[in-house]
Design a protein that fits this description.
This protein has 421 residues and is of the alpha+beta class. The protein is built from seven helices and 24 strands. It has four domains: 162 residues, Molybdenum Cofactor Biosythetic Enzyme, Chain A, CATH 3.40.980; 55 residues, Molybdopterin biosynthesis moea protein, domain 2 (Alpha-Beta Complex), CATH 3.90.105; 89 residues, Molybdopterin biosynthesis moeA protein, domain 3 (Beta Complex); 73 residues, Beta-clip, CATH 2.40.340.10. The strands form six sheets. Strands 7-4-6-5-9-8 form a six-stranded mixed β-sheet, with no helix packed on it. The two termini are 39 Å apart. The structure holds ligand LQZAQKY5 and molybdate ion (MOO).
Length: 421
């Protein structure tokens, strides 16, 4: 049995970043930048006023109490002009006339005289005005030619704001990873919605994986359900290969039962098995293989929490590697209740997270951790990850935590869970 770390290393080693494609920025939200973006402009792209007021040249003549003639007016959108004598009325965002170096806010002046059209003609400064006051200098946000976003960054609304300000209308993004899902099990009810037949269950792994993968930015090209025999599974694999997918995820039939045919079927298909069985709980019987033509196959055990662990801790790193993103930075919280994990296994526990009255993130494992239970998963905020060698964990120690789903941030509850007596 392989350790989680070695399994991930083996899984990611042969992966390369997927090719890029060009998109209009407006359609690229949630996509991953293929290359570093360099700024074609300085931001601000010209010195401009931070306040509505008067532009002037700071110095001995700009002391509090000094009086000045107002010549001209400069609004946002006006082209540059040369500084004249006196001061110039200026609006927030307007280009600073060349030769001026400060702006006094209108409320820090007194109007002494107005013109017949009501515009100010002569003003008095209420305070001393220093060089650079209320001026936003060209290039102080982004210098021209600077690397503004690294390849591998996800384009969120904040990146859209930055790239739009830089006038970047099209971006190279990594192609979405293409994924096929195959759910095995003759107990899975197929066909139009109907009451369950005897011994049958609804397929929950397929819809879960589809939703989780789409949320993580993958292109789910198919989700097939097959029974417990080899041929339909091989046919589904063949469809996935023909569709040119990057990753096949199957669920079920990888354990020790009479009908657990997936390991043999993959070998029959010519797949190279990278590992089978990982020292972890839940999800131990997980298998990874590489098909000769290229797609990677992750055969997850069918039990719902084994699927959730497979998606969060195996599929997520694979998708990140395919998109040129490094490993996730580890997050930590204070363990709120002691744990006694089985030595030698990495444990993934569903947990509630909240901030205590000192602002520390607390994590309590939910009471019911059996891998068939879906209800506690749907109520959980996050995973607690306990190391293979960590031994018993006392309440109060620091533990690793991870968001519940792929490519989402930590969810935090309003307070500690209410514990049933
Ligand atoms: N003798 C042993 N038996 C088992 C072992 C073992 O080491 N020795 N390991 C157990 C562990 S751990 C797991 S996990 C399961 C994994 O079994 P399989 O991958 O072969 O999965 P199945 O038997 O096909 O299904 C397990 C369970 O999940 C339900 N299931 C399957 N697919 C779906 C689906 N699409 N939606 C909802 N639920 C699904 C299925 O009905 C079973 O109840 O093996 C243990 N056994
Ligand atoms: O790994 Mo399994 O999900 O414990 O039953």
């Amino acid at each position: 049995m392989i350790s989680y770390r070695d399994a991930i290393e083996r899984l990611l080693a042969p992966l390369s970043v997927l090719p890029s494609e060009t998109y209009a920025l407006a359609d690229a939200t949630g996509r991953v930048l293929a290359d570093t973006v360099t700024s074609p402009l300085a931001l601000p792209s010209f010195d401009h006023a931070a306040m509505d007021g008067y532009a002037l040249k700071a110095g001995a003549s700009s002391r509090g109490g000094s009086e000045h003639h107002v010549h001209g007016s400069q609004a946002a959108g006006d082209s540059g002009q040369l500084a004249g004598a006196g001061v110039c009325e200026i609006m927030t965002g307007a280009r600073l006339p060349q030769g001026f170096d400060a702006v006094v806010a209108v409320e820090r002046t007194e109007i002494l005289q107005t013109r017949p059209d009501g515009t100010p003609q002569r003003i008095r400064l209420l305070d001393d005005i220093a060089h650079g006051r209320n001026v936003r200098r060209m290039g102080t946000d982004v210098p021209r030619g600077a690397n503004v976003q690294a390849g591998g960054a996800t384009i969120e609304p904040a990146q859209i704001m930055l790239l739009s300000a830089l006038g970047i209308a099209r971006v190279a993004v990594v192609r979405r990873p293409r994924v096929a899902i195959i759910c095995t099990g003759k107990e899975l009810q197929t066909g139009p919605p109907a009451p369950l037949s005897d011994g049958h269950i609804h397929n929950s792994n397929g819809p879960y994986l589809t939703a989780a993968l789409k949320r993580a930015g993958a292109d789910v090209v198919s989700c097939e359900t097959v029974d417990d025999t080899v041929h339909p599974y091989l046919e589904a694999l063949q469809h996935a290969v023909e569709a040119g997918v990057d990753l096949v995820i199957s669920t079920g039939a990888v354990s020790m039962g009479r009908y657990d045919f997936v390991p043999a079927a993959l070998r029959h298909f010519g797949a190279q098995v990278l590992f089978h069985k990982v020292a972890m709980r839940p999800g131990k019987p997980l298998l990874a293989a590489r098909l000769h033509a290229s797609p990677l196959v992750l055969a997850l055990p069918g039990t719902p929490m084994a699927v959730a662990v497979g998606a969060r801790f195996f599929v997520a790193p694979v998708l990140r590697a395919m998109c040129g993103q490094g490993s996730e930075p580890p997050l930590r919280a204070v363990l709120a209740s002691a744990q006694h994990p089985k030595p030698g296994l990495r444990h993934f526990l569903r947990a509630t997270l909240w901030l205590d009255d000192r602002g520390r993130l607390q994590a309590r494992a939910v009471d019911q951790q059996e891998p068939f239970r879906i209800q506690p998963f749907a109520n959980a905020d996050a995973w607690i990850v306990l190391d293979e060698q960590g031994g018993d964990c006392a309440a109060g120690m620091s533990v690793e935590v991870a968001s519940l789903e792929l490519a989402t941030s930590l969810r935090i509850s309003a307070g500690p869970p209410t514990i049933n007596p």
